[in-house]
Amino acid sequence: MNNYLITGGAGFIGSTLANHLSNENSVIVIDDLSMGKEENLFKCSNLKFIKGSVTDEKLMEDILSNNKFDYIFHLAAIASVADSVERPVETHQINFESVLMLLELIRKYQKDLKRLVFSSSAAVYGDEPALPKKEESVIRPLTPYAVDKFAAEQYVLDYNHLYGVKTSAVRFFNVYGPNQNPESPYSGVISILVARYKKMQNGEEAQFTLFGDGSQSRDFVFVEDVIQALLLVATKEEALGRQFNVGTGNALTLNDLISVIDEALGINLRVKYEAERDGDIKDSVADISRLMSLGYKPNFSVQDGMKKYLVSEKLI
Ligand code: UD2
């Protein structure tokens, strides 16, 4: 039985991790419910939910000074690149300043912490065309989101080198699966697609707006594989002070993704094509050899992951 703190733990990835861990561990979740939902979390005595923001210094100090954690996963963030372009100052507070504050609180109060895992992003690679992305590939953060993620990631790893705080970081590629919130226009494309298919299955009018011609490609990774990666990165000695790509190593175009779902559901999605989004990256795929060296093996192809997701949404 270990003690875990998961920031952003009512969100998509955080709640999947919290529910998984709460079987055999004690878990505290802090989340401001800006995108997360309390209903995402299992109701069980091992899992304590605190509604609040990671930018609230007093609250964070209370949590960190009154508990002894074995592991901390910092997943709280504004995950929207576009939002960071609209509101660079506000998103900086959450995506960067909260991390530095957390690092200081850990240095002060959590001397026995076994690992802090920070969630960085494939956004740090920017539009540099060489593929697949290796952790040591050229970094070209192009948006406030990407700059903050990269800076925070470097601070997190530096706290290991400078102060001996046990830290690691992960660079998520395109994560999908149950509990991803489709409500924002900048939600993950798969969650938006699933919401449209659901409407069509219910006999309602629905169409999906595709930004670009659909030839852009992404490394879509199922959330259960992401949990596998997070647990390996948190527990392996070799992961200390390092960052890891989290993906599958395979890319799929949006057009092919839609064909996969069309086929699984026997529906032809209505697609409206619009101009591509500003700052959209054309192709993205992870080199996952560093993560595989920790023992990671993705278990879900997009076909398998989508089936499991569609079943959980009662679409099949
Ligand atoms: C993902 C992450 C982001 C950042 C980035 C790093 C998500 C939700 N976002 O952004 O946080 O880490 O990777 O590169 O995982 N699209 C449509 N129609 C829609 C929505 C999206 O055509 O209604 C397109 C979009 O223009 C893009 C693709 O689908 O070409 C994927 O979009 P996304 O928002 O799921 O993810 P991405 O890769 O922009």
TrEMBL record:
Domain (NAD-dependent epimerase/dehydratase) ranges: 5-247
InterPro entries tied to this protein: Epimerase_deHydtase, NAD(P)-bd_dom_sf
Pfam families, per database record: Epimerase
Family stated for the protein in its record: Belongs to the NAD(P)-dependent epimerase/dehydratase family.
Protein name: NAD-dependent epimerase/dehydratase family protein
Native species: Enterococcus hulanensis
